[in-house]
Amino acid sequence: MVRPVDHGERRGPASGVLQEAFQITGRGCVGVFAELEGIVRVGDTARFPDGELKVTGIEIIRYTDPTKRPEGEIGVLLEGAEKEALLAFKGKRIVFEAGED
């Protein structure tokens, strides 16, 4: 069943399970999230157990082998994030709270 999405309405926080992290030269660190619930937007705040990071971009993840692409996976560019620090939370569900509009 297809349900229309109202992009102007936010129904509480979003969340996703951190799968991987990688650096984009000149842009910053991207956390790859799966098992998404809700909508993650630029300006949201990612709440980690040891702090919070601002979402500064949403990245498209492309795989060279399309059979290995998990469904519903996105990349989230996180301001000030370090790859090794993000990977400490691999497999954990991270909450994204709505940013200021």
SSE blueprint:
Elements: E1 14-24, E2 28-37, E3 45-48, E4 51-59, E5 74-78, H1 83-87, E6 93-97
Antiparallel strand pairs: 1-2, 1-6, 2-5, 3-4, 3-6, 4-5
Return the average pLDDT rounded to an integer.
85
Radius of gyration: 14 Å
The H/E string reads: EEEEEHE
Distance between the termini: 31 Å
Task: Please outline the major beta sheet.
Answer: 6 strands, antiparallel, barrel
Helix content: under 10%
In short:
With 101 residues, the chain is mainly β.
Keywords:
globular; mainly beta; 6-stranded antiparallel β-barrel; 1 helix; 101 residues; 6 strands
Could you describe the 3D structure shown?
With 101 residues, the chain is mainly β. Helices cover 5% and strands 44% of the residues. The protein has a six-stranded antiparallel barrel with strand order 1-2-5-4-3-6. A hairpin with a 2-residue loop joins strand 3 and strand 4 (51-59). It is globular, with a radius of gyration of 14 Å. It starts with 13 loop residues before the first strand and ends with a strand. The model has no long low-confidence stretch (mean pLDDT 85).
